[in-house]
Amino acid sequence: MFFKKFGEKLKSLFGGRKIDESFFEELEDTLIEGDLGARLTDEIVEELREVAKKEKLSEATELQRKMKEILSRYIQPYSEKPEKGKINVYMILGVNGVGKTTSIAKMAKYYTREGYKVLLAAGDTFRAAAVDQLDIHAERLGMRIVKQQMGSDPGAVIYDAITSAMAQGDDLILADTAGRMHNKENLMKELQKMDKVIHARGVDEKNYKKFLVIDSTTGQNGVSQALLFNQAVKLDGVILTKYDSAAKGGALVQIGRTLGLPVLFVCTGEKYDDIKPFDREEFLSSLMGLE
Hints:
The protein is α/β, with parallel strands linked by helices. Helix content is about 50%, strand content about 15%. It has helices at about 5-15, 20-35, 40-55, 60-70, 100-115, 130-140, 155-170, 185-200, 220-230, 250-260, 280-290, and strands at about 90-95, 120, 145, 170-175, 210-215, 235-240, 265, 275. An eight-stranded mixed sheet has the order 3-2-4-1-5-6-7-8, sandwiched between helices. The longest helix is centred in the N-terminal third of the chain and has 17 residues, at about 40-55. The model has no long low-confidence stretch (mean pLDDT about 90). One of its GO terms (cellular component) is plasma membrane. It is an enzyme of class 3 (hydrolase).
């Protein structure tokens, strides 16, 4: 069950309680623990206080759906689809260890099943075995891949991938990227360089998207990563991995509130089929313990 532990805490808190100061204090602690952050938590609790006072509510259960309504302002699914018959480039970003390369493989299978002709681009030429890892996925999935030797210029990989896609009539390029965090400045410059190559090759702006892969269990780190990558190359959305009971979910609300980023996919396991489009209603109901 997604976010079961956190959802259970909220369900217990809202169930059968009288609305008093101790309720709001406990709610505040629970939301901060759930990675919603101090500022957003203050805003939510203050709005709930005002609602309770204005509507003269006495039972906490009456506030549960109001809180879901508040959170829904910040959470949106990514609804656009790649345009068939055109070159679409999805640059997939994320720090090492979040499941970025595996997510690309899952996306490749998903979009192939949706009728797209997909090409993989091994743009993470810095991490040991990253190219080989994506190559193995491509072989297992029966997909074409554009790659170069480790240490090669990732911009050149993207250039070659677009050239190949144009020649072969591919619809969608899924491009892996470096995720080194020990030198943020170099990483961001590399991503910006790849960004320039894609624009220079004439890919339509509407067909070029940048998605950040975030580990659902990392909490506040996910917010920091989103801010960092968005600063380097303006993001279009996020993809969640490890979307299960270990995750609290509040960081996603923060990312939505701060950057307005929608969610494209959620990944739940290691198999290629363990991916599905983000469902806001399911997410919020689970987060709030309303299932």
